[in-house]
Amino acid sequence: MLLYIHFPFCRSKCAYCDFNSYAGCSDVLVFSYLTALKREIGFAGERFSEGKIDTVYLGGGTPSLLSPGEIESLFRKLSSNFKRYSPVEVTAEVNPESATEDVLLAFRDAGVDRISMGVQSLSDDNLKSIGRVHDATGARRAAERIARVFGNFSLDIIVGLPYDTPSLVRDEVRECGNLAPHVSVYELTLEEGTPLAARAERGEIWLPSEDEVAEYMELAVDVLSEAGAERYEVSNFARRGYECRHNIGYWTREEYLGLGAGAHSLVKTSKEGKALPAEIRFASPKDINAYIGGINCVGSFDDVPRAEMTALSPAEIRAESIMLGARTREGFPESLLSGRKFGRVEEFLRREKGRVSLTRRGMAVMNSVLAEIM
Ligand code: SF4
Question: Which regions of the chain carry the CATH code 3.80.30.20?
Fold first, then answer.
């Protein structure tokens, strides 16, 4: 089972961010949140006492805002409450301005063996335009600090930012690929309701066109391949052996348990050790106070109020397996296509050893391919 822990606090809110994260919160609120989170961990440990924890991912928000003492106590709670806690990978997300040596050492001492840092860009103009609180030099220094403590770490870059040019993207992706064994490259998504979307709507910023962003992504694939990092998912690149096992688990639809405000879970059902076709997806309330209140007024995992609870039908499970698998190098089982062939779209599909994956050109037009084969 994959375990996701959400820490939803940030120093300030980035202009493009649509994640469940909050800035400017009081220490009292953070304390109350961590208390509720530990209570939920206790409930989950009882409820899933037979569940083996294979990977852990502490995401946010900005988990590097936790103090060394809070990091130690959070991970102690995890390892002491899950009976079968033996993760093969434990990732913590950090941001450059708070990835101090003390925090990194505290993560390492608590059992974290993989760091994922949001760099987003190595252009100060870009970083300023999207409201990041660090500059490019700060990101480089943080990456060097991480490399001194962790052999396994990832750097995130966003392409499609206001000041992106082909040479900027090539240089920053190359630099990240030379520094880190894993790089994630995401295309900027303008999420409705964010300050960046509002500024774009008002014509106050210029953003690259879809074609330009596609070109940047292709550049990233080439540059990272030269640096020895292979694309193993549409946005993720790693040197062999450094692929993120936790995220691979999501794409292959393993069971996952998400704890914390807004966290999602996927739990599969079984009877007498045999898997049943029913799968349940549920999520906690996104609002921090609603989450804390909900946890504090119940006494067991099954009573925790949920913002969402869905039983997935076989058709939904099949559709998800295709959609997620198509994002990955390994693809999905060919049997999910029930022997169908797709005319023009076939040229974007690779069928090998009973699996179907997208070719490089197929990845570039993934949405159209999926629309055809689903
Ligand atoms: S640091 Fe990450 S989670 Fe926090 S506001 Fe920025 S993008 Fe959102």
Answer: 2-248
Instruction: Give nearest CA residue, ligand 1 atom 6.
Output: 14
Residue type, 133: V
Q: Does domain 2-248 have CATH number 3.20.20.140?
A: no
Which residue has its alpha carbon closest to ligand 1 atom 3? 61
Residue nearest to ligand 1 atom 2, measured at CA: 61
- What local confidence, expressed as pLDDT, does residue 332 receive? 98
Q: Which atom of ligand 1 is nearest to the CA of 16?
A: 7
Mean pLDDT score of the chain:
96
Residue 272 has a pLDDT of 74
Residue 162 has pLDDT above 90, yes or no: yes
Residue 21 Cβ inside 6 Å of ligand 1? The answer reads yes
How far, in Å, from the CA of 112 to the mean position of ligand 1? 21
- Average pLDDT (343-367) is 96
pLDDT at 274 (0 to 100)? 75
pLDDT at 232 > cutoff 90:
yes
Whether residue 273 is predicted with pLDDT greater than 80 in this model: the reply is no
